[in-house]
């Protein structure tokens, strides 16, 4: 795409954020470009100017943006994670992002559930977002391992995947209950992997 | 609803199963009653005869049926879970149900993600399905606790929720990769709670 003016960049971003909001509330299938245009006061030609590939290109842009937002919400802790208290600060920031701010769902996890079966390009963007997140957690687990808090033979990548799964699955369980306790129980148990080796 | 004939029961069930298939592939929002009618060769009046409440009633029936199927796939192990080997047999049956049979998603978890924000009645059915599942796992964890494999002070309900979260979250991560390793890593780590107390 040609380089955007500042104003164009803001319009494009407004479209992406509104689409993300609608997807979180109604799923990809329940989100229509007409509703997005109405909510952002944009014309059909404007929308296709920014997203020539139509809805699927727009949804991929949403996935990229949500992935970046999700990592930003975990700053600065996600780049430390070298002590148990840094992990606790990270955990608190993440629970606030999901529950405190009223999302009750992971934008990336929701896209994964809806996308993987039918849109390979979107599935690749979602896998990339999970991959970037898993890399950060893996690096943190490795720091804990170097500090002696994780068994030497354990695979930091598998521990990080289990922590990420606890987040995603805890949210799936918390959402219909509208109660954070399953998310917290899952995270607590996954983080036990960081409490000194047996 | 009036009692159904055997033939009526089969037609209703065919509609429920086809809707479940379409939801798993395209989400609730991407599933249309017209597509369901076309695939099941039913008329509009037949469909509304079985589901007078329309799509939302049909989706709730799908949630109830998928919840029962999911528990059935875990038989007979899910009613034992009193030894580590019974937990391993349960784990194998479950991984086969999701991965071996090519689902790569949890029908109930997917409904939870899509439903909770916008359909409180469906969210209640989903919460009920998770609740029934969690009760079975909680009973199993309690048996392991009685056998001395779980710390006395630990709450079996929280351990069961963490195991269930590992399943749901592991699937969310496995799906876009089309690789079961995150599911297996998450389950392995969650099941460590059953390996003798510290």
From TrEMBL, chains A, B:
Q: Does the keyword Transcription apply?
A: yes
The yes or no answer to whether the keyword Transcription is present is: yes
Taken from the record, one Pfam family name reads TetR_C_13_2
Transcriptional regulator LmrA/YxaF-like C-terminal domain residues? 103-188
Q: Which UniProt keywords apply?
A: Transcription, Transcription regulation
Protein name per its UniProtKB record: Transcriptional regulator, TetR family
């Amino acid at each position: 795409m040609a380089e955007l003016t500042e104003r164009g960049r803001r319009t494009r971003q407004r479209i992406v954020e509104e689409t993300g909001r609608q997807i979180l509330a109604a799923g990809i299938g329940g989100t229509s470009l007409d509703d997005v245009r109405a909510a952002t006061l944009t014309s059909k030609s404007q929308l296709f100017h920014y997203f020539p590939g139509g809805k699927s290109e727009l949804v991929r842009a949403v996935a990229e943006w949500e992935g970046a937002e999700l990592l930003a919400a975990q700053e600065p802790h996600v780049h430390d994670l070298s002590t148990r208290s840094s992990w606790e600060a990270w955990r608190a920031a993440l629970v606030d992002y999901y529950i405190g701010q009223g999302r009750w769902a992971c934008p990336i996890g929701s896209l994964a559930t809806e996308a993987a079966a039918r849109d390979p390009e979107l599935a690749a963007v979602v896998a990339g977002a999970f991959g970037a997140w898993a890399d950060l957690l893996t690096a943190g687990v490795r720091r804990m391992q170097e500090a002696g808090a994780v068994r030497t033979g354990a695979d930091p990548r598998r521990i990080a995947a289990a922590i990420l799964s606890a987040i995603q699955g805890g949210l799936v369980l918390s959402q219909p209950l509208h109660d954070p306790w399953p998310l917290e129980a899952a995270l607590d148990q996954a983080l036990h992997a960081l409490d000194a080796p047996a």
